[in-house]
Design a protein that fits this description.
101 residues, mainly alpha, 3 helices, rod-shaped
């Protein structure tokens, strides 16, 4: 039978430190996704208001933004899974939940 780790266990301290470094990464990724999606919507609205068809360049830009936003969403999902895995493994580790949700 293994002893229950203490609150000052180095592994838990390492998990807390890792979570502390992941929180700003999550915030930055979420902001990048929001910016890319807002720009895509702005492009679409602008052309709808002008009753214009999207030019080839604008369509390419919008497609690139969509691809970038999708890649950022995947990365954000992976980082959040890391956080969930750490929280599952170390349920006593406290973290700033509001920054992660």
């Amino acid at each position: 039978m293994t002893p229950e780790p203490t609150a000052n266990d180095p592994t838990r301290a390492q998990a807390r430190g890792f979570l502390g470094r992941l929180e700003p990464e999550i915030e930055a990724l979420a902001q990048c996704v929001d910016r890319a999606e807002a720009l895509m919507q702005r492009i679409q609205r602008t052309h709808e208001l002008r009753a214009e068809r999207l030019s080839a360049e604008t369509t390419a830009l919008r497609g690139g933004l969509y691809t970038e936003a999708a890649a950022l969403r995947r990365e954000l999902y992976q980082v959040r899974r890391l956080v969930d895995t750490i929280a599952f493994r170390f349920p006593m580790v406290t973290r700033n939940v509001s920054a992660l949700d």
